Amino acid sequence: MPHLLHIDSSSRGADSLTRQISARYVAAWRRQNPEGTVTYRDVTVNVPNFVSADWVTGVFAPAEHHTLQTKAAVDASSALISEVEAADVLVLGVPMYNFNVPATFKAWIDQICMAGRTFTYGEDGPRGVLAGKKAVIARASGSDFSNPAFAPMDFHAPYLRGVLGFIGITDIEFISVSGMTPEQVNAGLADADQAIAASLKAL
Ligand SMILES: Cc1cc2nc3c(=O)[nH]c(=O)nc-3n(C[C@H](O)[C@H](O)[C@H](O)COP(=O)(O)O)c2cc1C
Q1: What domains sit in the chain, N to C, each tagged with a CATH number?
Q2: Pocket-testing residue among 98, 137, 155, 186, ligand 1, by greatest number of atoms within 8 A of Cβ
């Protein structure tokens, strides 16, 4: 039974383009996978913990050295990792804020990157553990970063490719909308619908 993890991180509620695109993707995926299951997480409502001293100590401590605080910090992180481990497909609604991902989404990333669990260090360097998953990123930005004048300031897509690849998720697809005017937004959403259909056809 296929399983999908759906995460949103826009603070713009119903006006959010990334929320609209991620919801459309998940609805189409459900139609294509009627037996499939979905876990939904909104990191603006349930904001993940930030990396704390208890988390850092706990991740690297043997179980017998845990305190209540370090155990709680690691358990919260572990619960988020379990959601990723259980998913075949991740649909991530991630707007661009100040040229990168929203801080709430970064907090989620920081919670799921755990040494020994989602990546390991071997003789050849780090190795991502979460292979075989597909990530679809619904992205929205005010500027069009396919414009070479803006491209050097795009830390969003390279960061997501880099950090997800680091934990083993290398099959990554972006469905992007850019622009501020209603015309740009409507055209972008229509393109997104086509991209969703093409993406699901290839699944
Ligand atoms: C706090 C904030 C920061 C933003 N920073 C950028 C930015 O650095 N570059 C950009 O092109 N657009 C930026 N924008 C515009 C958003 O990326 C754009 O409104 C997008 O549609 C937001 O995604 P959403 O519709 O899912 O909320 C920013 C918007 C907000 C609210």
Answers
A1: 3-202 (3.40.50.360)
A2: 98
Q: Which residue has the tokens 């379990």?
A: 82
- Rounded to the nearest 5 degrees, what angle is found at the Cα of 89, between the Cα atoms of 133 and 200? 110
3-class secondary structure per residue, 7-72: EECCCCHHHCHHHHHHHHHHHHHHHHCCCCEEEEEECCCCCCCCCCHHHHHHHCCCHHHCCHHHHH
Ligand 1 first shell, C-beta below 6 A: 10, 12, 16-19, 95-99, 140-143
The residue contributing the CA closest to ligand 1 atom 7 is 98
pLDDT in tens, the chain (203 residues): 999 999 999 999 999 999 999 999 999 999 999 999 999 999 999 999 999 999 999 999 998 999 999 999 999 999 999 999 999 999 999 999 999 999 999 999 999 999 999 999 989 899 999 999 999 999 999 999 999 999 999 999 999 999 999 999 999 999 999 998 999 999 999 999 999 999 999 88
Task: Output the CA–CA distances (angstroms, integers) from residue 179 to 17, 64, 86, 145, 188, in the order listed.
Answer: 11, 53, 35, 10, 8
Which long-range contacts does 50-56 make (Cβ < 8 Å, 24+ apart)?
Answer: 50/107, 50/110, 51/110, 51/111
